[in-house]
User: Fold this.
Amino acid sequence: MDIEAELRDLAARRDIQQAVMDYMRGQDRLLPDVQRRAFHDDAFVDAGLFSGGPDAYVAFAQTFLSACKASQHLVGQMDIRVEGDTATGEVYFLAWHRIVEDGEDKDLIVAGRYVDEYENRAGAWKIARRREIVDWARTDAPADDFLRGQPSLHRGGRGTADFGVSRDWPLPPRT
Assistant:
């Protein structure tokens, strides 16, 4: 066993996973810089509704998501294959969006996969090519009775309104 090759492979997978997480977090928190840092500058993205470079894609995605009242994107299994300074990946996702249709709140749920190619350039693993595949989607009336009945729950937000971004911890009470 070549321990150095094993370590390089593990480090590559870690860095690729971080790029995927930056992409998802940037979407849900409406942080375009975080989403954008997942891509190399000359990357190509094909999401069906949009195809092109990373700057235009991030602007497209942020515009769509900012029209939603909220969203949450979850990453499932990730099949990443590293070969030197290139890698391929298939990343499963489940995405929930609170949208408004005809003045009514709806839940749009989309499940699919990102089929990716990654490259390590100057020590940075990022997405070089991405195609979004939608396996299924549905739009339903929201079922928020639990949330309405639990006002003390800490709810997510967008940008710095989200605790995961602001980390605005209250000061402990003085004794």
